[in-house]
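#struct-pred

JT: dropping the chains for the assembly here, can someone run the whole complex?
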Amino acid sequence: DIQMTQSPASLSASLGETVTIECRASEDIYSNLAWYQQKPGNSPQLLIYDANSLADGVPSRFSGSGSGTQYSLKINSLQSEDVASYFCQQYNNYRTFGGGTKLELK
Amino acid sequence: EVKLQQSGDELVRPGASVKMSCKASGYTFTDYAMHWVKQSPGQGLEWIGTIIPLIDTTSYNQKFKGKATLTADKSSNTAYMELSRLTSEDSAVYYCARDSGYEDYWGQGVMVTVSS
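RK: done, full complex below.
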């Protein structure tokens, strides 16, 4: 099974700041990686797929990068509506999710 | 508009079973696989398994084999998941999600509470 290690588990940032969340796979997942945003009480929403492709309707301040086993999600110019939990997911071999990152405002 | 409408929240006794549904609309049901995902209270996401409605083929996370059974009804565009021999560890929110290679649409979730 592919393991996904996500960091940090929690993050506090100020409005307008740039934040980065990392995800490491236990083996090469060939950019078969997605990022999801989940707000309290809501379902996960797709942000990024194929490691760096922006899903429809997602603001351009979100971006994804990486390859092989290392991936990251960057949020530029943090907005209040970005307060949420973020999860990475590999879909190279079935599905595995990272442990999540809870993003709060400082 | 693609929509996955899940059935209502459930309160079930320990040892019982529960079957939940996920009704798809806005796309051709048999063109996409459907995944099921568990989210325990305050926890992350766990993949349970997937069903390909066109050919009724299923794949399961080893952890959920014997616990979850996935089915689909092509005539009603509905996917189902049954959870058996429920314990407190099964109390969670369960989501269905459409497979476009990644999960692009999610249901609203079913909260299952296992309690006597």
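JT: nice. Chain A has a mean pLDDT of 97. DSSP finds no helices and eleven strands in chain A.
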